[in-house]
């Protein structure tokens, strides 16, 4: 009986594992384009660090190259991306009993215009906002680069999701 029970569990485990399938791949199956271009993001947020527009532009280019089938092209691309940094703000989000902040939040907002020259129906203009929290014990300047990297990744994912969702 004990051997039969073990065999049953072994067969069940084998069936379960063999029925699992792991899939991964590019996230751009619905993008009707082959090339893209990104104009340097304009810095309109007064608190944004100098050069952040260029930093985010390069980040977005690298993100699209590594996660989509799209090829970077300097001009006459199928998809043209233009953007502005409209907000770069730090605010307290969690107040302790002594009325001091336990956590602060860095928030970045972008206004993005995407022109799809192959399929005008897939063009859009949208605002994207993301944030990252940090302890109030830390000075923003000591954690800003890591926070910006985290937020840039989230913003870029949001833009690609919007590109692929066609909504």
Task: Give short descriptive properties of this protein.
single chain, 167 residues, alpha/beta, Double Stranded RNA Binding Domain, six-stranded mixed β-sheet, 6 strands, flat
Characterization of the model:
By secondary structure, this protein is α/β, with parallel strands linked by helices. It has one domain (2-165): Lipoprotein like domain (Double Stranded RNA Binding Domain). The protein is 36% helix and 32% strand. It has 3 helices and 6 strands; from the N terminus they run αββαββββα. Strands 1, 2, 3, 4, 5 and 6 form a 6-stranded mixed beta sheet that branches. β5 and β6 form a beta hairpin. α2 crosses α3. Mean pLDDT is 86; it is low at 20-28.
- Summing up helix and strand content along with how strands pair, one would put the structural category as alpha/beta
CA-CA gap between termini: 58 Å
The name of the CATH architecture is 2-Layer Sandwich
Number of domains: 1
How is the main sheet built?
Answer: 6 strands, mixed
- The CATH homologous superfamily corresponds to Lipoprotein like domain
Rg over CA atoms, rounded to whole Å, is 22 Å
Beta-strand percentage range: 25-35%
- Overall number of strands: 6
